[in-house]
Amino acid sequence: MITNHLTVPAGLLLPHALLESDAFAALAAFVAINTVMYVALAVAKILPKVYVSDWIRRSNERSEPRGIIPENATNAPSEG
Amino acid sequence: MTKNRETRDRDRRPRKRRSPEAGGSSSRSAGLLIAGSVVAAAAALLTLVSAGGAMSSEAPVEGLVFGLWKVLYATEAPAPRVITAAIAVALALAAGVALLEQRIGNRSRRSLNINTKPLAPKVIMAATRGVYAGPVTVTVLIPAHNEEASLPLTLASLMDQSHPPEKIIVVADNCTDGSVAACRAAGVEVFETVGNTHKKGGALNQVLSQVLPGLGDNDVVMIMDADTQLDDGFLESAVRRLSQDRALMAVGGLFYGEEGHGMLGQFQRNEYVRYARDMRRRRGRVFVLTGTASVFRPAALRAVAQGRGLSLPGKHGDVYDTAALTEDNELTIALKSLGGLMISPQECTVVTELMPTWRTLWAQRLRWQRGALENLGAYGITPQTMRYWAQQLGIGYGVIALGSYLLLIMLMLLALDEWVWFPFWLGLGAIFTVERVVTVWRAGWRGRLLAVLIFPELIFDMYLNFVYVKGVIDLSVGRQAAWKHVQHPASSAAAKTAAMTTTPGSHP
Question: Cα–chain-centroid distance for residue B126?
């Protein structure tokens, strides 16, 4: 353990200089951008969902009833 | 003119078959396409940020918390323009996929083409206009392979429904235990398969070939697993919806995990609760008609059988494609491809078994993963499969994102000599925590407690990511899928044998 500390002066197991390398900076930036993207998606999941199609009524209206007992069915049972 | 049009339509139909060679290569392409795309996307972003300027940071400084606690903190954060761009890209991608799915769904729903979309609502409406085919009746088919322990509970959940089924048929497939006797004792009809070597799909094909011809338009078929219990109200709700809408071709269930199995069980319950929440937010728009319990109109199953070997993968005349590892996912894509309208309402819930060990979970998920990718390979890139491709790409990118995040944390822990706080990232972490807890709220306090700890679930996610990577690699190198039949210790009726296999469901 002592030898380890002597050979790696600053940092638990890896040299401290690693954190200042270009590669580490690129990894950190990559993770940072991904994290922000996933946080944006997380916020979208927390918030109530907005259904845009609800605002456009016409596209959701059915042109005819769809029940299994169609109006004017020739062989539908009489009700009541 | 009509003939020309028909020929053209027929020619347009993809002719795919999952023969060992052709199917293997299309599946392999699916694996390579997904792996290549996500690696390319990640590499492009990494190259972009390597140029520098994405992050603004200063050396850590010392501060005092409450005037007492001395801490080192760093104000490292991405530049505001980078944050804005990242948020915009994420939301645009999510909205883009949702809009695309909706557009494709609408177009399919409005189709009038009887050749390519024989199950489209307008086609079905035209065919059934003015005809009353009687009230909705339910015939339940339960494929069973040595399910003696779980069948009594399954049957009881069916008979106790507020709207019990008209008929229950247990499809005994190569049973060597007391399954058949248990069914007969319960007064349930049993169909014993003959020479079936195609597992669940083969067993169902045999019984459906006998049952389907005698069913009217409103005599619906429910196919459910032998290890699943329906919550009360499932059938009542399904029958109501199928009565209200004769163009509705299928009603799928939402599955929840059974109790038990410690923390591993809770991970899976949380996962299923989140899936159900997503489905509610999709207003029941089906992603997968779960094999645990789904109801089909006979016309839908007949159209699939007709389409197999022509526009759909599989053997002509079979309802199920016996080459598919996840037959419920495959059948869903088949019905979507034919324009069928379907829904998974939130009242239709089922309780299904969970994997009791990490090893069985691994096998189950590897099968799901392989199955989903192979199905995509078999269908190719079509409007109906776009959403599934996008999901696979999303998972793939998530593997890289989460992996690089954990790598970064590990490097920092090993290279820092003193702990440094990052307020910006802690703030984002808090948002994640809220999201984890909110999305799993219905799982109760145990589920919320697990979610608030964040890291256990991240590790569970990472485990599933390893399964995903293994699935993609196996598929890409053309490794054969081999499935073991694992016997579980029967600690409860629900923790039954042969679990490790499907989209909650089938036996190997």
Answer: 32
CA distance B126 to B108: 16
Angle separating helix axes B455-476 and B20-50, nearest 10 degrees: 130
DSSP A16-73: GGGGGSHHHHHHHHHHHHHHHHHHHHHHHHHSPPP-GGGG-GGGG--SS---SS-TT-
- Give residue-wise pLDDT tens across range A3-18: 444 444 456 677 877 8
Q: Give CA B6 to chain center in angstroms.
A: 34
How far is the C-alpha of B439 from the C-alpha of B461, rounded, in Å?
Answer: 15
Query: What is chain A's Cα-based Rg?
Result: 32
For an interface test with B, the pick among A33, A50, A69, A72 (most B C-beta atoms closer than 10 Å) comes out as A33
Q: Where are the alpha helices (DSSP H) in B282-416?
A: 298-307, 327-337, 358-379, 386-415
Contact between B249 and B338 (Cβ < 8 Å): no
Helix, strand, or coil here: B69? Answer: strand
Give the long-range contacts of residues A61-67, CB within 8 A, separation 24 or more.
A64/B125, A66/B121, A66/B125, A66/B244, A66/B245, A66/B246, A66/B247, A66/B248, A67/B243, A67/B244, A67/B245, A67/B246
Q: A14 vs B411: CB contact, 8 Å cut-off? A: yes
Of chain B residues 445-464, which have a CB less than 8 A from chain A?
none
Please name the member of B50, B129, B431 whose beta carbon is closest to the beta carbon of A39.
Answer: B431
Give the H/E segment covering residue B421.
Answer: strand B420-421
Q: CA A37 to CA B251: how far, in whole Å?
A: 34
> Is B87 a residue whose pLDDT tops 80?
yes
CA B5 to chain centre: 36
Q: What is the pLDDT of residue B159?
A: 93
What does the alpha-carbon distance between residue B31 and residue B24 come to, in Å, rounded to a whole number? Answer: 11
Summarize pLDDT for B252-299 with one digit per residue, the tens.
999 999 999 999 999 999 999 999 999 999 999 888 999 999 999 999
Can you list the positions of beta strands (E) in B69-127? 69-73, 77-78
Give the side-chain half-sphere CA count within 13 A for B494: 19
DSSP E strand boundaries for B27-101: 55-56, 61-65, 69-73, 77-78
Q: How many residues does chain A have?
A: 80
pLDDT at A2 over 80: no
* Burial class (CB within 10 angstroms; exposed 0-12, middle 13-18, buried 19+) of B422: middle
Rounded to the nearest angstrom, the minimum Cα separation between A27 and chain B is: 7
Contacts of B340 (CB under 8 A, 6+ apart): B119, B120, B249, B250, B300, B303
A contacts of B218 (beta carbons < 8 Å): 68
CB B344 within 8 A of CB B251: yes
